[in-house]
Design goal:
By secondary structure, the protein is mostly helical. The mean pLDDT is 90. Helix 1 packs antiparallel against helix 2, helix 2 crosses helix 3 and helix 4 packs antiparallel against helix 5.
Length: 145
């Protein structure tokens, strides 16, 4: 249950953040806005680390097995950029529907092929059907009479 609640909160936060970031971008620029998002996220994470779990040091980052896993910050910056651009081009609701569907498809492919050391799962038609229904929802949402 906690996983579902956390996922719901994450989705809400991502949608609100996208709207906020797009609003800041309108008054600055996309890279100024994205940099501010990443800098404030960094400061928040440092403060949270300092207050909660200092038993793990930053030196442990050098011991990560798959160094490509350390690209999360760069991916975060690209995510911020693409969310801002998609929300400004499509509006929040349509952008989020497409973003979530793309996440769902990408996550299923990662599991299906066992990419990035994720446990491989067997193909299941009902999961593909769920993705197809999601795509159908995007088309229905975009449909205008």
């Amino acid at each position: 249950m906690i996983g579902i609640l956390t996922a719901i909160i994450s989705g809400i936060l991502m949608s609100v953040q996208g709207v906020f970031n797009e609003g800041v971008t309108k008054q600055t620029s996309i890279w100024v806005s994205s940099a501010f998002v990443q800098i404030t996220a960094f400061l928040f994470c440092i403060a949270a680390w300092f207050l909660t779990e200092r038993e793990s040091s930053f030196g442990t980052l050098f011991k990560i097995d798959n160094k490509y896993m350390l690209l999360g910050g760069i991916l975060g910056a690209l995510i911020t950029y693409t969310v801002i651009k998609s929300m400004s081009g499509l509006g929040p609701a349509q952008a989020v529907m497409i973003i979530v569907t793309a996440q769902l498809l990408a996550a299923y492919l990662i599991e299906l092929f066992g990419l990035f050391n994720v446990e491989k799962v067997n193909f299941q038609w009902h999961k593909l059907l769920g993705i197809a229904i999601s795509i159908g929802g995007i088309l229905l949402f975009k449909w205008e009479k």
